Amino acid sequence: MLPSQDAPVSHEIDQALNKLDKLHSSPTIALRVMELTREDDFEMSEVADCLEHDPALAASILRLINSSYYGLSEGVTSLPYALTYMGRRSVRLSVLSFGLVKTLVKGSPARFHQMYWKRSLTLAAAARRLAELSNIDTEPDTAFSAGLLADLGMLALAQMKTKEYVEICDDPDHTLRHVQLEREEFGFDHMAVGGRLLSRWHLPEEMVEAVANHHIYLPVSPELNHTLLVANLLTEVLWTPASHYMHPLLYLLKSRFGLGVDDLITLAVETKDAVRESMDIFGVQVQGEIDVDTMEQQAREQFEQAALDEESFLGGYDTLILDA
Number of structural domains, the chain? Predict the structure, then answer.
Protein backbone atom coordinates (compact mmCIF):
# COMPACT_ATOMS: atom_id res chain seq x y z
CA MET A 1 0.00 0.00 0.00
CA LEU A 2 1.30 3.45 -0.83
CA PRO A 3 0.63 6.49 1.34
CA SER A 4 -1.60 9.15 -0.18
CA GLN A 5 -0.13 12.49 -1.21
CA ASP A 6 -0.65 15.26 1.35
CA ALA A 7 -1.24 19.01 1.11
CA PRO A 8 2.41 20.14 1.45
CA VAL A 9 3.20 18.08 -1.61
CA SER A 10 0.88 20.27 -3.70
CA HIS A 11 3.10 23.27 -2.91
CA GLU A 12 6.18 21.32 -3.97
CA ILE A 13 4.46 20.32 -7.21
CA ASP A 14 3.49 23.94 -7.94
CA GLN A 15 7.07 25.07 -7.39
CA ALA A 16 8.35 22.39 -9.75
CA LEU A 17 5.76 23.17 -12.43
CA ASN A 18 6.52 26.88 -12.29
CA LYS A 19 10.10 26.11 -13.34
CA LEU A 20 9.16 24.20 -16.48
CA ASP A 21 9.63 26.50 -19.45
CA LYS A 22 7.76 24.18 -21.81
CA LEU A 23 4.56 24.55 -19.81
CA HIS A 24 4.71 28.29 -20.34
CA SER A 25 5.55 28.14 -24.05
CA SER A 26 2.67 25.93 -25.15
CA PRO A 27 0.88 26.84 -28.40
CA THR A 28 -0.61 30.31 -28.30
CA ILE A 29 -3.82 29.28 -30.08
CA ALA A 30 -4.51 26.35 -27.75
CA LEU A 31 -3.98 28.51 -24.68
CA ARG A 32 -6.20 31.22 -26.17
CA VAL A 33 -8.99 28.67 -26.76
CA MET A 34 -8.60 27.41 -23.20
CA GLU A 35 -9.06 30.99 -22.01
CA LEU A 36 -12.06 31.61 -24.27
CA THR A 37 -13.80 28.44 -23.09
CA ARG A 38 -13.20 28.91 -19.39
CA GLU A 39 -16.73 30.29 -18.87
CA ASP A 40 -19.79 28.19 -19.74
CA ASP A 41 -21.36 30.89 -21.93
CA PHE A 42 -18.45 31.28 -24.36
CA GLU A 43 -19.18 31.99 -28.02
CA MET A 44 -18.42 29.01 -30.28
CA SER A 45 -17.88 31.37 -33.22
CA GLU A 46 -14.94 32.99 -31.38
CA VAL A 47 -13.41 29.57 -30.82
CA ALA A 48 -13.80 28.70 -34.51
CA ASP A 49 -12.19 31.99 -35.55
CA CYS A 50 -9.32 31.33 -33.18
CA LEU A 51 -8.74 27.77 -34.39
CA GLU A 52 -8.62 28.92 -38.02
CA HIS A 53 -5.19 30.36 -37.14
CA ASP A 54 -3.88 26.89 -36.24
CA PRO A 55 -4.54 24.60 -39.23
CA ALA A 56 -2.95 21.56 -37.56
CA LEU A 57 -5.15 21.87 -34.48
CA ALA A 58 -8.25 22.48 -36.60
CA ALA A 59 -7.43 19.43 -38.75
CA SER A 60 -7.06 17.27 -35.64
CA ILE A 61 -10.53 18.27 -34.47
CA LEU A 62 -12.01 17.49 -37.89
CA ARG A 63 -10.33 14.07 -37.89
CA LEU A 64 -11.87 13.39 -34.50
CA ILE A 65 -15.41 14.43 -35.46
CA ASN A 66 -15.17 12.23 -38.58
CA SER A 67 -13.97 9.19 -36.65
CA SER A 68 -16.12 6.28 -35.53
CA TYR A 69 -16.28 7.85 -32.08
CA TYR A 70 -19.06 10.09 -33.37
CA GLY A 71 -20.49 7.72 -35.97
CA LEU A 72 -21.73 10.42 -38.35
CA SER A 73 -23.24 9.18 -41.59
CA GLU A 74 -21.69 11.99 -43.64
CA GLY A 75 -18.26 13.56 -43.45
CA VAL A 76 -17.86 16.96 -41.77
CA THR A 77 -15.62 19.56 -43.40
CA SER A 78 -16.90 22.66 -41.64
CA LEU A 79 -14.99 23.53 -38.47
CA PRO A 80 -17.85 25.64 -36.97
CA TYR A 81 -20.27 22.75 -37.51
CA ALA A 82 -17.81 20.28 -35.99
CA LEU A 83 -17.41 22.44 -32.88
CA THR A 84 -21.16 22.88 -32.49
CA TYR A 85 -21.79 19.16 -32.88
CA MET A 86 -19.10 18.24 -30.35
CA GLY A 87 -20.50 20.49 -27.67
CA ARG A 88 -18.85 22.94 -25.33
CA ARG A 89 -17.14 20.56 -22.92
CA SER A 90 -15.79 18.25 -25.64
CA VAL A 91 -14.38 21.21 -27.57
CA ARG A 92 -12.39 22.37 -24.56
CA LEU A 93 -11.08 18.91 -23.78
CA SER A 94 -10.21 18.22 -27.42
CA VAL A 95 -8.20 21.42 -27.71
CA LEU A 96 -6.40 20.56 -24.49
CA SER A 97 -5.62 17.07 -25.75
CA PHE A 98 -4.53 17.99 -29.26
CA GLY A 99 -3.04 21.41 -28.65
CA LEU A 100 -1.23 21.06 -25.34
CA VAL A 101 -0.54 17.37 -24.78
CA LYS A 102 1.03 16.86 -28.20
CA THR A 103 3.28 19.86 -27.62
CA LEU A 104 4.44 18.63 -24.23
CA VAL A 105 5.36 15.17 -25.55
CA LYS A 106 7.34 16.53 -28.52
CA GLY A 107 11.09 16.27 -28.22
CA SER A 108 11.00 13.49 -25.64
CA PRO A 109 13.26 10.42 -26.08
CA ALA A 110 11.88 7.91 -28.56
CA ARG A 111 11.22 5.14 -26.07
CA PHE A 112 9.41 7.50 -23.70
CA HIS A 113 7.38 8.87 -26.61
CA GLN A 114 6.34 5.31 -27.52
CA MET A 115 5.45 4.35 -23.96
CA TYR A 116 3.44 7.51 -23.38
CA TRP A 117 1.28 7.28 -26.51
CA LYS A 118 0.81 3.53 -26.16
CA ARG A 119 -0.56 4.01 -22.64
CA SER A 120 -2.53 7.19 -23.30
CA LEU A 121 -4.29 6.04 -26.46
CA THR A 122 -5.16 2.68 -24.89
CA LEU A 123 -6.36 4.27 -21.66
CA ALA A 124 -8.53 6.72 -23.56
CA ALA A 125 -10.02 4.07 -25.85
CA ALA A 126 -10.65 1.66 -22.97
CA ALA A 127 -12.30 4.33 -20.83
CA ARG A 128 -14.62 5.35 -23.65
CA ARG A 129 -15.59 1.79 -24.54
CA LEU A 130 -16.19 0.96 -20.88
CA ALA A 131 -18.51 3.96 -20.51
CA GLU A 132 -20.45 2.79 -23.57
CA LEU A 133 -20.58 -0.88 -22.62
CA SER A 134 -21.60 -0.50 -18.99
CA ASN A 135 -24.41 2.08 -19.32
CA ILE A 136 -23.01 4.28 -16.58
CA ASP A 137 -23.84 7.97 -16.35
CA THR A 138 -20.35 9.09 -17.41
CA GLU A 139 -20.39 10.45 -20.98
CA PRO A 140 -18.11 8.50 -23.35
CA ASP A 141 -16.48 11.75 -24.52
CA THR A 142 -15.62 12.65 -20.94
CA ALA A 143 -14.23 9.17 -20.28
CA PHE A 144 -12.10 9.35 -23.44
CA SER A 145 -10.66 12.74 -22.54
CA ALA A 146 -9.98 11.70 -18.96
CA GLY A 147 -8.13 8.63 -20.20
CA LEU A 148 -6.10 10.66 -22.64
CA LEU A 149 -5.13 13.15 -19.93
CA ALA A 150 -4.60 10.61 -17.14
CA ASP A 151 -0.83 10.36 -17.64
CA LEU A 152 -0.32 14.06 -18.31
CA GLY A 153 1.83 14.30 -15.18
CA MET A 154 4.37 11.98 -16.80
CA LEU A 155 5.16 14.68 -19.35
CA ALA A 156 5.98 17.16 -16.61
CA LEU A 157 8.11 14.66 -14.67
CA ALA A 158 9.97 13.80 -17.87
CA GLN A 159 10.92 17.47 -18.19
CA MET A 160 12.13 17.72 -14.60
CA LYS A 161 14.65 14.86 -14.80
CA THR A 162 14.60 13.40 -18.29
CA LYS A 163 17.27 10.69 -17.96
CA GLU A 164 16.10 9.46 -14.57
CA TYR A 165 12.46 9.48 -15.53
CA VAL A 166 12.93 7.63 -18.80
CA GLU A 167 14.64 4.89 -16.78
CA ILE A 168 11.64 4.76 -14.44
CA CYS A 169 9.35 4.39 -17.44
CA ASP A 170 11.42 1.46 -18.70
CA ASP A 171 10.03 -0.62 -15.82
CA PRO A 172 7.32 -2.89 -17.32
CA ASP A 173 4.96 -2.33 -14.37
CA HIS A 174 3.34 1.06 -14.97
CA THR A 175 1.00 0.89 -11.98
CA LEU A 176 2.36 0.06 -8.53
CA ARG A 177 6.07 -0.12 -9.24
CA HIS A 178 6.02 2.96 -11.46
CA VAL A 179 4.36 5.14 -8.82
CA GLN A 180 6.72 3.85 -6.11
CA LEU A 181 9.75 4.83 -8.18
CA GLU A 182 8.29 8.27 -8.93
CA ARG A 183 7.74 9.02 -5.27
CA GLU A 184 11.24 7.87 -4.41
CA GLU A 185 12.77 10.10 -7.09
CA PHE A 186 10.57 13.22 -6.86
CA GLY A 187 8.66 13.03 -3.60
CA PHE A 188 5.36 12.90 -5.55
CA ASP A 189 3.88 10.94 -8.45
CA HIS A 190 2.48 11.66 -11.91
CA MET A 191 -1.11 11.32 -10.65
CA ALA A 192 -0.65 14.24 -8.27
CA VAL A 193 1.14 16.30 -10.94
CA GLY A 194 -1.52 15.58 -13.55
CA GLY A 195 -4.33 16.47 -11.18
CA ARG A 196 -2.60 19.71 -10.26
CA LEU A 197 -2.09 20.67 -13.91
CA LEU A 198 -5.75 20.09 -14.75
CA SER A 199 -6.77 22.09 -11.71
CA ARG A 200 -4.56 24.98 -12.80
CA TRP A 201 -6.20 24.82 -16.23
CA HIS A 202 -9.65 25.00 -14.57
CA LEU A 203 -10.97 21.66 -15.76
CA PRO A 204 -14.03 20.11 -14.07
CA GLU A 205 -13.40 18.81 -10.57
CA GLU A 206 -14.64 15.30 -11.48
CA MET A 207 -11.89 15.02 -14.07
CA VAL A 208 -9.22 16.47 -11.78
CA GLU A 209 -10.13 13.93 -9.10
CA ALA A 210 -10.23 11.00 -11.51
CA VAL A 211 -6.81 11.82 -13.01
CA ALA A 212 -5.32 12.35 -9.54
CA ASN A 213 -6.48 8.87 -8.47
CA HIS A 214 -6.42 6.69 -11.56
CA HIS A 215 -4.10 4.07 -10.00
CA ILE A 216 -5.90 4.05 -6.66
CA TYR A 217 -8.78 1.89 -5.48
CA LEU A 218 -11.20 4.05 -3.55
CA PRO A 219 -14.27 1.94 -2.69
CA VAL A 220 -16.51 4.99 -2.47
CA SER A 221 -15.76 7.34 -5.35
CA PRO A 222 -17.40 8.76 -8.50
CA GLU A 223 -17.98 6.62 -11.58
CA LEU A 224 -15.28 8.39 -13.56
CA ASN A 225 -12.69 7.38 -10.93
CA HIS A 226 -13.60 3.71 -11.27
CA THR A 227 -13.72 4.03 -15.06
CA LEU A 228 -10.16 5.35 -15.23
CA LEU A 229 -8.89 2.79 -12.72
CA VAL A 230 -10.34 -0.10 -14.74
CA ALA A 231 -9.10 1.43 -18.02
CA ASN A 232 -5.63 1.70 -16.50
CA LEU A 233 -5.67 -1.95 -15.40
CA LEU A 234 -6.93 -3.02 -18.83
CA THR A 235 -4.07 -1.09 -20.44
CA GLU A 236 -1.60 -3.03 -18.28
CA VAL A 237 -3.24 -6.36 -19.14
CA LEU A 238 -3.48 -5.68 -22.88
CA TRP A 239 0.19 -4.77 -23.30
CA THR A 240 1.71 -7.14 -20.70
CA PRO A 241 1.16 -10.90 -21.21
CA ALA A 242 0.40 -12.82 -17.99
CA SER A 243 -0.09 -9.55 -16.11
CA HIS A 244 -0.70 -9.87 -12.37
CA TYR A 245 -3.31 -7.12 -12.72
CA MET A 246 -5.80 -9.46 -14.37
CA HIS A 247 -7.39 -10.48 -11.06
CA PRO A 248 -8.13 -6.95 -9.79
CA LEU A 249 -9.35 -6.05 -13.29
CA LEU A 250 -11.84 -8.94 -13.28
CA TYR A 251 -12.97 -8.09 -9.75
CA LEU A 252 -13.58 -4.41 -10.49
CA LEU A 253 -15.37 -5.11 -13.75
CA LYS A 254 -17.73 -7.43 -11.89
CA SER A 255 -18.22 -5.44 -8.68
CA ARG A 256 -18.35 -1.89 -10.10
CA PHE A 257 -19.75 -2.36 -13.59
CA GLY A 258 -21.57 -5.70 -13.48
CA LEU A 259 -19.45 -7.05 -16.34
CA GLY A 260 -18.12 -10.58 -16.76
CA VAL A 261 -15.30 -12.22 -18.66
CA ASP A 262 -17.17 -12.18 -22.00
CA ASP A 263 -17.67 -8.44 -21.59
CA LEU A 264 -13.95 -8.09 -20.91
CA ILE A 265 -13.13 -9.82 -24.19
CA THR A 266 -15.54 -7.55 -26.05
CA LEU A 267 -13.99 -4.53 -24.34
CA ALA A 268 -10.48 -5.70 -25.24
CA VAL A 269 -11.31 -6.25 -28.93
CA GLU A 270 -13.05 -2.90 -29.25
CA THR A 271 -10.22 -1.13 -27.44
CA LYS A 272 -7.65 -2.69 -29.78
CA ASP A 273 -9.57 -1.44 -32.81
CA ALA A 274 -10.05 2.01 -31.26
CA VAL A 275 -6.33 2.35 -30.55
CA ARG A 276 -5.59 1.85 -34.25
CA GLU A 277 -8.06 4.58 -35.16
CA SER A 278 -6.72 6.89 -32.45
CA MET A 279 -3.24 6.63 -33.94
CA ASP A 280 -4.60 8.11 -37.17
CA ILE A 281 -6.53 10.82 -35.33
CA PHE A 282 -3.48 11.91 -33.34
CA GLY A 283 -0.94 11.33 -36.08
CA VAL A 284 1.28 8.99 -34.03
CA GLN A 285 2.47 5.42 -34.47
CA VAL A 286 2.56 2.89 -31.64
CA GLN A 287 4.80 -0.15 -32.00
CA GLY A 288 3.65 -3.61 -31.04
CA GLU A 289 0.34 -5.41 -31.26
CA ILE A 290 -2.24 -6.21 -28.60
CA ASP A 291 -2.67 -10.00 -28.29
CA VAL A 292 -6.34 -10.42 -27.40
CA ASP A 293 -6.25 -14.23 -27.74
CA THR A 294 -3.57 -14.63 -25.07
CA MET A 295 -5.37 -12.16 -22.83
CA GLU A 296 -8.65 -14.06 -23.27
CA GLN A 297 -7.03 -17.34 -22.25
CA GLN A 298 -5.59 -15.77 -19.11
CA ALA A 299 -8.88 -14.06 -18.27
CA ARG A 300 -10.94 -17.24 -18.56
CA GLU A 301 -8.46 -19.27 -16.51
CA GLN A 302 -8.39 -16.73 -13.70
CA PHE A 303 -12.12 -16.16 -13.80
CA GLU A 304 -12.74 -19.86 -13.24
CA GLN A 305 -10.09 -20.27 -10.55
CA ALA A 306 -10.35 -17.04 -8.56
CA ALA A 307 -12.84 -16.07 -5.90
CA LEU A 308 -13.86 -12.67 -7.20
CA ASP A 309 -14.86 -11.23 -3.86
CA GLU A 310 -13.61 -8.23 -1.93
CA GLU A 311 -11.78 -10.29 0.69
CA SER A 312 -9.77 -12.09 -1.96
CA PHE A 313 -9.21 -8.88 -3.91
CA LEU A 314 -7.98 -6.81 -0.98
CA GLY A 315 -6.21 -9.58 0.85
CA GLY A 316 -4.44 -11.37 -1.95
CA TYR A 317 -3.73 -8.62 -4.43
CA ASP A 318 -2.08 -5.70 -2.74
CA THR A 319 -0.19 -5.18 -6.00
CA LEU A 320 -2.97 -2.72 -6.78
CA ILE A 321 -2.43 0.63 -5.13
CA LEU A 322 -4.97 0.89 -2.34
CA ASP A 323 -6.00 3.95 -0.44
CA ALA A 324 -9.09 3.14 1.59
Answer: 1
In terms of residue numbers, what domain contains 174? 7-316
pTM reported for the whole predicted model: 0.85
* CATH number of the domain encompassing residue 131: 1.10.3210.10
77 lies in some domain: yes
Closest-CA residue to 148 (of 186, 105, 111, 192): 105
DSSP string, 60-117: HHHHHHTSTTT--SS----HHHHHHHH-HHHHHHHHIIIIIIHHHHTTS-HHHHHHHH
Round the CA-based radius of gyration of the chain to a whole number and report it: 19
pLDDT tens for the chain, 324 residues long, are 344 455 568 889 999 888 886 665 556 787 788 788 877 788 888 889 988 888 888 888 898 899 888 888 889 999 999 998 888 778 877 887 777 777 778 778 889 989 999 999 999 999 999 999 987 888 888 899 899 889 999 999 998 999 999 999 998 888 888 999 999 999 999 999 999 988 888 788 999 999 999 998 888 889 999 999 999 999 999 998 888 888 889 889 988 899 999 999 999 999 999 999 988 888 888 889 999 999 999 898 887 665 555 555 544 444 444 443
